[in-house]
Amino acid sequence: MNETPHNDIARLPAQTKRISAIITILFFCAITSTVLVSSWIITFLFTKNLNQESFTPQDSPPLAIIKNTGALILSSSSPSLFLSSEGSFDPDGGLLTYEWAITAGPTTAHITPPFIVSHDAYYTAHTSLLASSGIWIITLTVTDNENKTVSASLPITVE
Fold first, then answer.
1. 74/150 same-domain check
2. Would 73 be classed as within a structural domain?
């Protein structure tokens, strides 16, 4: 008997074709899931020690900000000026300490700058201390828990 050559797959019964297709799909799914699980494991291994500090700049100096509630002029009608360190912060999240100082003033002043006036987050400049007329410089120095410091200064006019 002479048989004509046929395609081997064409001669397979339909059930065998379905089983072959299922095995191919399962093999593809097994390879895909192995790749996904492997990538998850690698991601976990490389990121398990990451936390908020991993994404925050380390060893950054703090930021000093001086806020005031009025005009920067002291006089007999306006003898005090409230200054605040509100808004000052440490990008590393550390605690801050504050130092307010008079860092410059008129040559006729009775105090010699730098003259520390407060270690609080707030300071009230008053004409009782800044008695000489002229321009005074008030400086806020902010220090973080890593001993990094930064300063901001503000001129105040005394009439």
1. yes
2. yes
